[in-house]
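yo

u said u wanted the structure for the complex thing, so here. seqs first:
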Amino acid sequence: MSERVYNFGAGPAVLPEQVLEEAREHLLTFPGAGMSVLEISHRSSAFSEIIQRATSNIRALAGLSDDYRVLFMQGGATQQFAMVPINLLPVGGSADYTLTGTWAKKAAQEAERFGSVRIAATTADEKFTRIPAADTLEFSPDAAYVHLTSNNTIVGTQWPEWPHTGDVPLVVDASSDIFSRPLVVGSNGHGLGLLYAGAQKNLGPAGVTLVIIHDALVERAGVVGRTIPTTFQYSTYVDSDSLYNTPPVFAIYLVALVTDWLLSSGGLEAIGAQNARKADTLYDAIDRTSFYRGAAHRDSRSRMNVTFRLANDALERRFIAEASDASLAGLKGHRSVGGVRASIYNALPEPAVNALVEFMAEFERVNG
Ligand SMILES: *Cc1c(COP(=O)(O)O)cnc(C)c1O
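structre next:
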């Protein structure tokens, strides 16, 4: 296969074509460096400019005030499941977790190793097919933080809005919807304490994790009452500008290009509008007929991972196989839930969604 297909995979996921083209240029020789971007030192002036650009792009996109730090780390979102409680949950303390899916559960399980975890809300009895209603949320004023997963990649649900947590800092796993719509941060927003996102869904390739942390939480590691290895302290990354040890140079370079692309395409307002159009088009196609059934409740539907079912497993397998033959790749649902999942991240172009909708109509005509 030599042509690029439409990639609906959940992650690592589609990247903007224009970013890949630019990276291809720099793969041989990075301007001014005389060597590949894969070969430059993380202490070089070329890389210094790259990481500063990625940082300032992220600050601009998120509208960060001066009291937030932008960090580039490794170990994926999964490592943050541990780093968050290690740094922020005092020995003997308690944190509030909202359980809205597999990833949220994993985050809570990891926190249980370091303190007590209070479940502030869960939709486990509905197989996580919805986000808890705002009026059922009960946060403890004594919690060290409140953790939530903004978009549930596997089931296909997304918090329509992040809840207000008062004086308790909010910690958000935004791996699968980071920068997909305007982000409300800061004192007049949701009291965001920390946000983390593995890059491989909406931000770049696998290998780098974005962390946005409020200054007030950086120093908490010093008073939680446990010994923390240097590379597991947020302050290490703050003090060294994410250069304590060799960072994932190429992945950060791609994050710089992806965030350049986001800003030059009109920022989060523009991409948010485009994502809403893409999701509406696809959900309309699902709702138009009983041949397809949306897997998530309407009020909780994700604009990033659109999940749906057909009448039975055999039909779903045929749908996914024939879609793949039609250059619509990566539509198989997560192995834990089955069904069909179309991940329609920022970089997936609108024609890809239109092609999928056309394929769905034709598949129904033949098999309905
Ligand atoms: C993919 C994903 C993860 C796991 O990310 P890794 O980078 O593989 O550790 C965690 N949370 C959410 C919401 C995800 O979508």
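The radius of gyration is 21 Å. Residues 267-287 form the longest helix (21 residues).
cya
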